[in-house]
Specification:
- The complex is a heterodimer of chains A (about 100) and B (about 280).
- Chain A is mostly helical.
- In chain A, about 65% of the residues lie in helices and about 0% in strands.
- Chain A is built from 7 helices and no strands.
- In chain A, helix 1 crosses helix 2 and helix 1 crosses helix 6.
- With about 280 residues, chain B is α/β, with parallel strands linked by helices.
- In chain B, the strands form 2 sheets. Chain B has an 8-stranded mixed beta sheet with strand order 6-3-7-2-8-1-10-9. In chain B, strands 4-5 form a two-stranded antiparallel sheet.
- Classes of the chains: A mainly alpha (about 100), B alpha/beta (about 280).
- At the A-B interface, helix 1, helix 6 and helix 7 of A face helix 7 of B.
């Protein structure tokens, strides 16, 4: 279903639970947002994430985070609070589907 | 008969938060349509509303997902989004009506979840802003899971809707039903910006014809093929189940590219007839 609208969220199970939980906290909780902004490596180190997930989170690699299974309605708000344009966000997640 | 009003309305954030990005003709059409719905609701002297609605990780997360959650609070608050350009406000709930719906649903082995506290995001607040702008009409939200897979089937949603309809028809209150969300859109996903107008118009025609069998025959995957957000049309199918036999009028449809959403607004005429 690569590239097809709704192909992922509509049909596949959402995974990467701890990763998505962390991103939701950054999106919603000012304290978590501040901690992530101040020291993303420390923030990620305290989480039960794979090395791949940690690296993607620390680098705010939207394409990789999307490929790892982060839901678009968590990931796009995460990108917005980091001042990422819609076009840049879409380029990143679309590239992740073809790489 | 106390089902006195029924409508469906899409809830794209752009409808309120970045209104003027839409072409003027589309914006005017959709605002006029919302006003038509509001006037019909007002004329029906609605005393309580049941909303089949969606949320976007506002209350629920993957630690616990239910196919449907019925709000049974006395008061709700929203919106959760500070950027929505809506003042945060309190909305009265109808816990008694919610409990009646729950009781009948459990008796029929449908068993939705329930919550004594919910916050509303744009999915519920935008329809309320347009249809009950004073936010005084008591509401019962029924939040269908349109986010995390697996989502409830259209058949489940229609059956839950049927229980809602049966409670509403037996109620002494004058009750309105509203379905929110859809139509085709793929927010935050690779298809963001894609609008499947052919899909939307086919779905609208089925709703207008009251073709409950065709609506129940969709799979979640069928809906998702028109964008992850099109799965919110489960709310419309639940409304169809609540009405049973009905016809509908397409008040407006616009494929609004700057809002990245196919926007549909309909009103319905439920038939007070024995259903199969």
């Amino acid at each position: 279903m690569g590239g097809r609208p709704g192909g992922r969220s509509g049909l596949k199970s959402v995974s990467a639970y701890e990763l998505q939980k962390a991103i939701r906290r950054v999106n919603r909780e000012p304290a978590a947002r501040e901690a992530f902004a101040k020291a993303p490596e420390d923030f990620a180190a305290a989480l039960d994430l794979t090395d791949d997930e940690k690296a993607a989170l620390v680098a705010r690699d939207y394409g990789r985070l999307y490929a790892l299974g982060v839901h678009g309605l968590l990931l796009r708000p995460f990108s917005i609070i980091h001042q990422v344009s819609e076009a840049a966000y879409l380029d990143a997640i679309r590239a992740s589907r073809t790489s | 008969m106390s089902l006195v009003f029924a409508a469906a309305i899409s809830h794209a954030p752009g409808y309120v938060a970045w209104t003027d990005m839409a072409p003027v003709a589309q914006k005017d059409s959709l605002y006029a349509a919302a006003e038509t719905l509001r006037q019909q609701l007002d004329a029906a002297k609605v005393e309580a509303l049941v909303l089949f609605t969606s949320e976007h990780w506002a209350n629920f997360f993957l630690d616990h997902i239910s196919p449907a959650v019925i709000g049974r609070a006395d008061t709700y608050f929203g919106p959760v989004e500070p950027w929505l350009k809506m003042e945060r406000t309190a909305i009265p709930g109808d816990a008694a009506l919610a409990s009646e719906i729950l009781a009948l649903a459990y008796e029929r082995d449908i068993a939705p979840g329930y919550a004594h506290e919910l916050e509303f995001d744009h999915g519920t607040m935008i329809p309320l802003k347009f249809l009950t702008p004073n936010m005084k009409t008591p509401v019962t939200p029924i939040v269908l899971n349109a986010l995390a897979s697996p989502q409830p089937s259209p058949r489940y949603c229609a059956e839950l809707g049927r229980a809602v309809g049966d409670v509403v028809r037996a109620s002494p209150k004058r009750i309105g039903l509203i379905a929110t969300g859809g139509m085709s859109h793929d927010p935050g996903e690779v298809g963001h910006g894609h609008i499947d107008e052919a899909f939307d118009r086919r779905f609208l025609a089925q709703m207008a014809a009251g073709d409950l069998d065709a609506l129940k025959a969709y799979s979640v995957a069928d809906l998702g093929a028109a964008g992850a957000g099109a799965i919110e049309l489960l709310n419309w199918i639940a409304l169809a189940g609540a009405m049973g036999r009905f016809s509908g009028e397409i008040v407006a449809y616009e494929a609004v590219v700057p809002w990245a959403t196919g926007m549909g607004l309909m009103t319905f005429q439920p038939q007070d007839a024995e259903r199969p």
